[in-house]
Design a protein that fits this description.
alpha+beta; 9-stranded mixed beta sheet; 5-stranded mixed beta sheet; 18 strands; about 20% helix
Length: about 300
């Protein structure tokens, strides 16, 4: 009977990997590969990228997974190429071409159309998406040839910047709120120009305060010695950079880690200027304790706690 070597025991790993995802891979595929490279017990991603898309995919390990939701809520920045004149059923290069239309647009027309999509807009989610209806993702209905009614959702386009136009390819830089479908935006821009369009390329360059310039590819990660890979992880609080800082003395820190609401006075080493969510540290060793909610009258309510800080 064949024998196999014992599986390597998973180890606790904590931090954030800024991954530059390549095209042709699902977000879950690269998560599994990265988790294997770190031999990590627990890992998760902070929102998916379509398989054809590339760019920044923050992966959370260990305690960082508790704060992944905060990146799901964050604004995101993309660079995309819209192929004008071709409509596909998925809105990108992975779909079947439904219609070919002539492209005869000017730079002035493009600039006028782009202005219409800047700011708050309503967007209808695509059928080829992971949104669920009756427990099934919409893309399963789409693959079965079924189209369902979808309600428009409000999103915000903070930046819609023209980069270049080399007919029929229109390159744009976009910064937007959570829940924005760049595929739908590309289709809508093409429709407004009267020629239709679909995404030829999509690259995510920023998520919240995290930027693509700091990211590694899976190949670069695999090339690093296993014992050194941990040094490539950003700390857990990299996910919380936009939160005000609150530092506590040792006794208040102990009580905070026990989930107690605290009425803060002079014992707090630093206090945020406003109410709302904060990242909380122990002042004596600058250790992240978790996140909390600053309420009226200087009351701090624990929210998510870092178990390794105890």
């Amino acid at each position: 009977m064949a024998t196999f070597p014992p599986r390597k025991k998973r180890v606790p790993v904590h931090g954030v990997l800024l991954l530059d995802k390549a095209a042709g891979h699902s977000s879950n595929d690269v998560l599994i590969k990265a988790k294997r490279l770190f031999n990590a017990e627990k890992a998760g991603h902070t929102g998916t990228l379509d398989p054809f898309a590339t760019g920044l995919l923050p992966l959370c390990f260990g305690e960082a997974t508790k704060f992944a939701q905060d990146l799901l809520e964050a604004d995101k920045t993309y660079e995309t190429v819209v192929h004008l004149g071709l409509r596909s059923d998925t809105g990108d290069t992975e779909g079947v071409i439904l219609e070919t239309l002539p492209v005869d647009v000017t730079l002035a027309q493009i600039e006028t159309v782009l202005e219409k999509f800047l700011g708050p807009i309503d967007q209808v989610p695509p059928m080829y998406s992971a949104l669920k209806r009756d427990g099934k993702p919409l893309y399963e209905y789409a693959r079965a040839g079924i189209t369902l009614e979808r309600e428009a959702r409000p999103v915000v386009i903070h930046l819609l910047e023209f980069v270049r136009y080399e007919a029929p390819f229109l390159t744009l830089r976009i910064s937007c709120s959570k829940g924005t479908y760049i595929r739908v935006l590309g289709e809508d821009i093409g429709a407004a120009l009267g020629c239709g369009g679909h995404l030829n390329a999509l690259r995510r360059t920023q998520v919240g305060d995290l930027v693509l310039a700091d990211a590694l590819t899976l190949e670069q990660l695999a090339a690093v010695d296993e014992d050194e890979r941990g040094t490539l992880l950003a700390p857990v609080d990299a996910l919380l950079a936009s939160f005000p800082v609150l530092s506590l003395d040792d006794e208040l820190a102990r009580r905070f880690l026990h989930g107690q609401r605290l009425s803060l006075g002079k014992e707090a080493v630093t206090l945020p200027a406003t109410e709302g969510r904060v990242r909380v540290y122990r002042e004596s060793d600058a250790c992240l304790l978790g996140t909390g909610l600053m309420q009226e009258f200087g009351v701090l309510a624990p929210e998510r706690l870092v178990s390794t800080a105890r």
